[in-house]
Amino acid sequence: MSKNVGTIDRIIRVVIGLALIAWGYMTQNWLGAIGIVPLFTAAIGWCPVYLPLGIKTTKS
User: Fold this and answer.
1) Residue 17: which domain range?
2) Interhelix angle for 7-27 vs 36-44, to 10°?
3) In sequence order, which ranges of the chain are alpha helices (DSSP H)?
4) Whether the Cβ atoms of residue 3 and residue 50 lie closer than 8 Å to each other
5) 33-48 pLDDT, tens per residue?
6) How many domains does the chain have?
7) pTM of the full predicted structure?
8) Is residue 22 part of a domain?
9) Which pLDDT does position 5 carry in this prediction?
């Protein structure tokens, strides 16, 4: 499992994840929990969707 998520991609994922969680909290909607997915993929630096598509946003 090599990293396939670059720095800018990680930052975007963190912002989107936090925004989804905040939206879910503010509207009291459980769908905001979906924000955990981009936060998790940003934390580990690997996205399972990128693998079959052959996408790699890392520099190397």
Assistant:
1) 7-53
2) 160
3) 7-27, 36-44, 50-53
4) no
5) 999 999 999 999 999 9
6) 1
7) 0.90
8) yes
9) 96
